[in-house]
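Researcher: Quick one. two chains, 561 residues in total.
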Amino acid sequence: MKKSTIIMLSVVGIIAMIIAMIGIYAVSINNTEIELHNRYDAQFNVVETTLDKMRKDLMNQFKVTKKFADDFIKVAQTQSEGRKGGTLLKFSTESKALGMNPELYKKMMNTISGNLSEFKRSQDVLTDVWRVHKTFCQKFPNSLMVGSKIQPKPEMISSSMSKEVMKTKKLDDNLLGD
Amino acid sequence: MLFFIFAPILITIISAFVILVSPWWSLKEGKNRIKFVIFLIGSLLISSGASYGIYVNANRSMMYNEVWHFAVKKIIHEEEWTTREMYTVQVPSGTVKGVTTYRTEIRYRTQRHGPFWKVQLDDGHICKIGSSSYNHWKNIWKNETNVGEHKGSSANFAKAITGQIYACKWNDQFNTMFPWSEIHKYTNKVRRSKSVLKYKTPTKELIKQYPRPADNNNVSSIISYGVPISAEDVLFMDRINAKLGRRYEIHIILMIFKNKDKSIVDDVMSAWQGTNKNELVIFMNVNDNKITWAKVESWMDNTKYHGMIADQIIDKPINIKKLGEYILASVGKNWHRKEFKDFEYLAVKFPWYFYAFNIIAITVLSIINGLLTQHIIEKINRY
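Model:
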């Protein structure tokens, strides 16, 4: 075989290999994008479930009405930053205001603050998956293939007060709102 | 991942191309064609192996230490014993046409073994311990029995020693438990990624001030900053961990501070970059022997249990035993170790030097492979 033929065959072989590699790479980009997209979609359901679970846990475990559960969640949101000293007195005052004994109040408070943290985690993961998906789509050379598949930023479920602050960019002294 | 697959293939193709266009190995000659094929196969195998090694090593950077707890079921003492071991040597047997010839001779030696002191853990695996530790637990368990012997043998008239084997069994009582801890590795992508779940980057001072216990071989269940804790309490918490550790995949740490603000929890969490997946860390502050605040940290999604634990201790005098007993009774229902498979979506970027090193390493290996192939084939042809 002539040297020129060998070189030509080699060049063709190299090009074929490079094309095959690009093909595999492209498939890999597409599959990763699909995986992340599906994970992102699924996380919305997780957020919804944890939100729903919060009220249901209170209603089922403590046999309270939907309205009471909703009111209690509002109170619990203000307490979700762990326990501080002097809580005994605080619990007594708060439980008295709600017409409950302090022990039951503590149990309900733990249930709801646990659920709140689960809800927060589910929203954090949602943001995180969105971030990973967006970065993946934006990066070169991925952007050539999946650049148009960037998902809209997920809207966080938060209090109307937080939404207002985000909109106006103004924070009043009363952090917890009315 | 794909980079580590493609790189060796590409480097092999490029080096093959270089050989083809170069005047070094003219493929008109049969021996050069053999060289070329050997080079191609060798280069692909070696560079793929090297690339895989570098990839595995890069992945190891996502692995972190965590503490596993066990209960010792049995302690074993094997006395020293000897065995007769066979080995062979080549000895000169004469000369043939001026060349020395050799024959294989079988010889025997006496091999000494032990003495050994070991523990058998509740998952069945065995670890070595020291004689003092064995004696300590032998005196507590008080049920040492002879469970067998290593029959001694010897070579060349040396004295054979037979070693007795003794064992003590734990009676399954909590207050006589011998707790055991080990450091193991697990993959934590969150700590290496840019995840929103990641803790803020700590300062060097903070890392120095609050070193991550598992990374410093600290397997203790209680870490106290200024509050004296009795050895009895430490042993009690170690036993709680040993009892619960394997079943629930948990490592409980009590972090006890004296007259500190609650913000210290954020500092420690930042220095540690969060807890390990099996850690339940109970932070508490003691002021005049009373716990003034408590905060619990773990990877659990639902932190109801955190609040339950904190409620047990806040505004009360510090009582390790009472807390331990509460955890013992409540952990089964309330502890759910986080599955880190949930974070598989996280993309972890390796540092650039892993990629550069991979390219350089497989290129150098390819060149060495070419030179070796040339040298070996030429040598074979010469003979």
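Residues 41-149 of chain A form one domain.
Researcher: Thanks, that's what I needed.
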